[in-house]
Design a protein that fits this description.
The protein has about 300 residues and is of the alpha/beta class. It has one domain: Class I glutamine amidotransferase (GATase) domain (Rossmann fold). The protein is built from ten helices and twelve strands. Strands 1, 2, 3, 4, 5, 6, 7, 8, 9, 10, 11 and 12 form a twelve-stranded mixed sheet that branches. The longest helix has 17 residues, at about 280-295.
Length: about 300
């Protein structure tokens, strides 16, 4: 089944060329079915690339998904045309009286800052509180996961001696959980971060479950005890060339950066990257949509508990 997105969204052409199942707005209106309403808070500077990555994964599901793109009104985006934001994004204030079946919060390039020093932190904290009652299931990625773990559970992030950068093997800790249904015994996922969430901090919090981790990259996949919050410390949504682009960017800026581990064949950056995480990424997102959202949400969206619902 398709993802319903605006006809003018730049991601449409890319995804159609890849045979990702999309649906025009007028056709979706003719279907007698309630699509899953998913809000995406896109905090990445490369918003159009991130939209495409997430929509590609949401589209690989038998469920119809209606996406609402959100941005922080308290932050001025410098890498995305204002026209794109005006046409395709709304602010948190625009949706705070609405209910959503799911919410995705992306990473952001602010991880070396204290949470409270991020310019949009007050607005984000308000959104995270809103998500407790207005969203059935939330999926937090990379810095978004660290921010949510800090806000909800007081779990800190810790600086790393060097950037955790590359594609790493992971193992499943809780095979019985639906979110990891079908995962291989060893699966791969990209990481790109300067800070970490420590295993001891997670295990000390009884309201959290550690579902998957890596001997090299540490904590990877967590969920809340009620299974309505999912935290992913890596970037399973990344395209094949995303780490390559980040590597070239940092080299060009003269920043200290190593070759991303387990990414280029023989660690040779002149060769094409080897993609080993695509199947896991698709499975993670389809499991989240199916088991955490579709199988659990009320059929009528009005049945969701919502604070300040608009009449």
């Amino acid at each position: 089944m398709p993802v319903k997105i605006p006809d003018t969204l730049p991601a449409r052409g890319v995804l159609e060329a890849e045979n990702v199942f999309l649906m025009e707005e007028h056709r979706a209106l003719q279907q007698d079915i309630r699509p899953l309403r998913i809000a995406i808070l896109n905090l990445m500077p490369t918003k159009i690339a991130t939209e495409t990555q997430l929509l590609r994964l949401l589209g690989n599901s038998p469920l119809q998904v209606e996406v609402t793109l959100l941005h922080m009104a308290s932050h001025e985006a410098k890498n995305t045309p204002a026209e794109h934001l005006l046409e395709h994004y709304v602010s948190f204030a625009d949706v705070r009286g609405q209910a959503f079946d799911g919410l995705i919060v992306t990473g952001a390039p602010v991880e070396t800052l204290p949470f409270e020093a991020v310019d949009y932190w007050p607005e984000l904290a308000e959104l995270l509180d809103w998500a407790r009652t207005n969203v059935f299931s939330s999926l937090f990625i990379c810095w978004g996961a660290q921010a949510a773990l800090h806000h909800y559970y007081g779990i800190p992030k810790h600086p790393l001696a060097e950037k955790q950068f590359g594609v790493f093997p992971h193992k499943v800790n809780a095979r019985q959980e639906h979110l990891v249904q079908g995962f291989d015994d060893v699966f791969f996922a990209p990481h790109s971060r300067h800070t970490e969430t420590r295993r001891a901090d997670v295990l000390a919090e009884p309201r959290l479950m550690l579902l998957a981790e890596s001997d090299e990259a540490g904590v990877y996949l967590l969920q809340s005890a009620d299974r309505r919050q999912v935290f992913v410390t890596g970037h399973s949504e990344y395209d094949p060339g995303t780490l390559q682009g980040e590597y070239a960017r940092d080299l060009g800026k003269g920043l200290p950066i190593g070759i991303p581990r387990n990414y280029f064949p023989d660690d040779d950056p002149t060769r094409e990257p080897l993609v080993r995480w695509r199947s896991h990424a698709n499975l993670l997102f389809s499991n989240w949509l199916n088991y955490a959202v579709y199988q659990e949400v009320p059929f009528q969206a009005d049945a969701l508990p919502v604070e300040g619902r608009q009449a």
